[in-house]
Automatic annotation (TrEMBL):
It comes from Urochloa decumbens. Transmembrane segments: none annotated. This is Formate dehydrogenase. The keyword Flavoprotein does not apply. Pfam families: 2-Hacid_dh (PF00389), 2-Hacid_dh_C (PF02826).
Length: 355
């Protein structure tokens, strides 16, 4: 949160100080779109990424003479955001409650100078339209890398240990040890491969080292030799050669035109039968139907994936909940049941289980 606050101040200050003003100095309109925290806002003074916390920059902005408006109302022709499109200079939003910036909105935003994501990812912005309009698009690089890496480790352990079905048993008052233990495994000795070894991928590999795993990584660039030696990770130049070696595959690559649909039916077929897949990146990196089919056949034991067509911040049926699905082997019916929520970093997802 502190990193968001500091980076947001720096980016806003730089943008407003360096661009020609459409209005007089000290009178910029800045709109922040965040989710409401309600009763939880007062439970943590550092909880700033919400409407109530206003990213922790209200006092600073207003002391500079700027007009700062914060809302969670971002959709529909009569929403609060629409009232400010035409004269706002800066729009700040988050991946967890994104304000979608379409070409049509950009066209109407005559004063707009800066589109700032308080987090990572700009999937909610029409980037070609923003570039054509000469807008600055910025995000807070590295703001949630630790959170995501820790969350990935959490998911690996939960899925390997078969924790979620065990939790469901307890909730339902059952106690069938064999029903859980028959597919609960130790992480030690397993081969874990990360597709992408940037900030998050490297942190994940470092956190996996104490578990005595075999660590592999695929990326365009190799990790620094000293760090690679310290972690004990092995570089795999050929992704398709790495996949059949892995018991667990973690996807840590950004969504680009090259990575969209990267994990299709053909690539999934190269994975080891019974593999566990954790995708904390963008859902569109994986072909949803191919993943579902592989789970149904048992080729993939468990897969945790982000939003089907975009990213983990997309809403599910307009309810304000990010979309995700937890596909499990051998569960023919598709009744979505909320299992666990992990509101940490980008992982603010509702997991759905096929029961």
């Amino acid at each position: 949160m502190a990193m968001w606050r500091a980076a947001a101040r720096q980016l806003v200050d730089r943008a407003l100080g360096s661009r020609a003003a459409h209005t007089s100095a000290g009178s910029k309109k800045i709109v922040g779109v965040f989710y409401k925290a309600g009763e939880y806002a007062d439970k943590n003074p550092n909880f700033v990424g919400c409407v109530e916390g206003a990213l922790g920059i209200r006092n600073w902005l207003e002391s500079q003479g700027h007009h700062y408006i914060v809302t969670d109302d971002k959709e529909g022709p009569n929403c609060e955001l629409e009232k400010h499109i035409e004269d706002m200079h800066v729009l700040i939003t988050t991946p967890f409650h994104p304000a979608y910036v379409t070409a049509e909105r950009i066209k109407r935003a005559k004063n707009l100078e800066l589109l700032l994501t308080a987090g990572i990812g700009s999937d909610h912005i029409d980037l070609p339209a923003a570039a054509a309009a000469g807008l600055t698009v910025a995000e807070v690089t590295g703001s949630n890398t630790v959170s995501v890496a820790e969350d990935e480790l959490l998911r690996i352990l939960i899925l390997l240990r078969n924790f979620l079905p065990g939790y469901q048993q307890v909730v339902q008052g059952e106690w069938n040890v064999a029903g859980i233990a028959h597919r609960a495994y130790d992480l030690e000795g397993k081969t874990v491969g990360t597709v992408g070894a940037g900030r998050i991928g490297r942190l994940l590999l470092q956190r996996l080292k104490p578990f005595n795993c075999n660590l592999l990584y695929h990326d365009r660039l190799k990790i620094a030799p000293e760090l690679e030696k310290e972690i004990g990770a092995k570089f795999e130049e050929d992704l398709d050669a790495m996949l059949p070696k892995c018991d667990v595959i973690v996807i840590n690559t950004p969504l680009t035109e090259k990575t969209r649909g990267m994990f299709n039916k053909e690539r999934i077929a190269k994975m080891k039968k019974g593999v566990i897949v954790v995708n904390n990146a963008r859902g569109a990196i994986m072909d949803t139907q191919a993943v579902a089919d592989a789970c149904s056949s048992g080729h993939i034991a468990v897969a945790v994936c982000g939003g089907r067509e975009g990213h983990a911040g997309q809403v599910l049926q307009g309810r304000g909940l990010p979309r995700a699905e937890l596909h499990r082997q051998g569960r023919p019916a598709r009744q979505p049941v909320p299992v666990i929520a992990t509101p940490i970093g980008r992982s603010c997802m509702l997991f759905l289980m096929r029961l």
